Amino acid sequence: MEYEVGQIVYSKSGHDKGKIFVIICVEEEYVYLADGKCRSLEKPKRKKIKHIQPTKFVSEVLKKKLIERSYLLNADIVKVLREYSKDEGGF
């Protein structure tokens, strides 16, 4: 599966197993993840692609801001993750 900036994923392993994140950067076999709280934009989590579970949801708002490198707050990420979790019936 192809991973992209702004996509929501779940962690499959590590101490953050089961937590929800947004991809903020994609490299060869790694992605950088942020949740806006524990993992901020300033200090994202680097994780191997094999250790994340992708969802089909991609936040177009976050994707656009990340690609254009426009002003983005951790609160924007928290808001998107909260709305996604509410729609999925979780958290």
Strand segment tally: 5
- Count of folded domains: 1
Tell me the name of the CATH class: Mainly Beta
Strand content: 25-35%
Radius of gyration, in Å, reads 12 Å
Q: What's the total helix number?
A: 2
Detailed description of the structure:
This protein is α+β, with helices and mostly antiparallel strands and 91 residues long. The protein has one domain (7-88): Roll (SH3 type barrels). Helix content is 26%, strand content 31%. The protein contains two helices and five strands. It has helices at residues 60-68, 74-88, and strands spanning 7-11, 20-26, 30-34, 45-48, 52-58. The protein has a five-stranded antiparallel sheet. The longest helix has 15 residues, at 74-88.
In short:
By secondary structure, this protein is an alpha+beta fold. The protein contains 2 helices and 5 strands.
Question: What would the keywords be for this entry?
Answer:
5-stranded antiparallel β-sheet, SH3 type barrels, alpha+beta, globular, 91 residues
Q: How is this fold's topology laid out?
A:
Blueprint: E1 7-11, E2 20-26, E3 30-34, E4 45-48, E5 52-58, H1 60-68, H2 74-88
